[in-house]
Amino acid sequence: MAMKTRGELEAAICDGISRFEQDYFGRGPQHIHAHLIGDLLVIRLQGGADMCGQHLPSQDTAAGKGAGSVETSSDSAD
User: Which CA distances in Å does 3 have to 7, 9, 10, 45, 62?
Assistant: First the structure.
């Protein structure tokens, strides 16, 4: 079996990520780009992350922390 080119690897990665998002979130990204630079893989997704964004604030709220909340300490070092 011949080795895949960088472009073929990047395309296969995009396909896999897109299928994962469709299976897990119910829809995939509008645009996806993978860039293999040496041993660094950069994946850029555009659109389709609405489901992720909706789940994060609800988890914070369930734990008693609203979005943007900041915890401070009342202890002071006098």
Answer: 11, 9, 13, 26, 48
Dihedral angle over CA of 52, 53, 57, 62, nearest 10: -20
The single-letter DSSP state of residue 73 is -
Q: Which two tokens stand for residue 61?
A: 């709220």
CA 43/CA 22 separation, integer angstroms: 16
- The CA distance from 48 to 29, in Å, is 4
Series of mean pLDDT values for 10-residue runs along the chain (78 residues): 89 94 86 94 82 55 53 51
Nearest CA among 43, 13, 49 for reference residue 29: 49
Residue 73 amino acid letter = S
